[in-house]
Specification:
Helix content is 74%, strand content 0%. With 286 residues, it is an all-alpha fold. The N terminus is likely disordered. It holds the Pfam family ABC2_membrane. This is Transport permease protein.
Length: 286
């Protein structure tokens, strides 16, 4: 016992050296913050692109949605150009030059509003949105994937409708084509915001009816296919305040005058801000 006490006292009075030879091993060198941030950014981008691919394929592989987004606009274009069933003052333009911009605007509405609203509403009802919002993709990534997926579908629409119009004699100006892409982006932002607002607040069955009815009414009286100034009475003024009329006028301005009407841009940006704010506050994920 005495030897144990002596040993303890010696240890206390003569502590072990703390030089380099007895120092604790250094912890592993942390990975540079920039590398982690870059890896995280790459993984987020990969997830968003994967969701984009899924959204686009879901629309293009669905027979009903393909019919609405691609087939119906093409048939409408051919019918309006080839058949004189709709007597409209074209202002000296050929029928193909007069109707093509409006048909392209209609196509943007079918994919960014009708198709997106219905798909998102049923995804919400089935719990898909709630599930995906809790994954690493997150709500922001999910919404980004949906918007980008719509743009991919619209690219297909523009190519198919544009080539059909060219086959019917349409010869658009290159500058007008570039301006029309700006109009497409503005219209997509506005109508996707509307789709999210409707899909996130109404029951799926109600969205199915509302989205299709709204598309029909806007196509007929919303200044999309036929310019607002050709509509009767108060509709000619009302259409210019609607996102449908603003998109239609923007597309016609791009292809027919080589400019984007300032009022159309203001209306589309205003609707995007208002609808986006409403969707952000009212959207229910389940």
């Amino acid at each position: 016992m005495n030897s144990s006490m002596n040993s303890a006292m010696n240890s206390a009075m003569n502590p072990a050296p703390t030089g380099p030879e007895t120092a604790r091993p250094r912890p592993p060198r942390p990975e540079p913050t920039g590398s982690r941030a870059h890896a995280g950014s790459s993984s987020r981008r990969t997830r968003v692109l994967a969701q984009t691919s899924f959204e686009a394929r879901a629309i293009l592989r669905n027979g009903e949605q393909l019919m609405v987004t691609v087939v119906v606009p093409v048939l409408a274009l051919v019918g309006l150009v080839q058949a004189d069933v709709l007597d409209v003052d074209t202002g000296g333009l050929s029928r193909i030059d007069f109707f093509t911009p409006g048909i392209l605007a209609l196509a943007v509405m079918t994919s960014s509003f009708t198709s997106q609203a219905i798909a998102s509403a049923f995804d919400r009802r089935n719990g898909v949105l709630r599930l995906l919002s809790t994954t690493p993709l997150g709500r922001g990534g999910l919404l980004a994937g949906k918007v980008l997926g719509v743009l991919v579908v619209e690219l297909v629409q523009v190519l198919v409708i544009g080539l059909t119009a060219v086959a019917l004699g349409w010869r658009p100006d290159a500058f007008g084509v570039a301006l029309s892409l700006v109009a497409v982006l503005l219209g997509t932002a506005a109508f996707t915001s509307l789709a999210m607002l409707v899909a996130g607040t109404l029951r799926a069955e109600a969205v199915l009816a509302v989205a299709n009815l709204a598309l029909l009414l806007l196509a007929i009286a919303g200044g999309v296919i036929v310019p607002a100034d050709r509509l009767p009475g108060p509709l000619s003024h009302l259409a210019l305040l609607l996102p449908s009329g603003a998109l239609g006028e923007a597309m016609r301005g791009a292809f027919q005058q080589g400019t984007l009407p300032a009022w159309s841009v203001v209306v589309l940006v205003g609707w995007t801000a208002a609808l986006g704010w409403g969707a952000g506050r009212l959207f229910r994920w389940h």
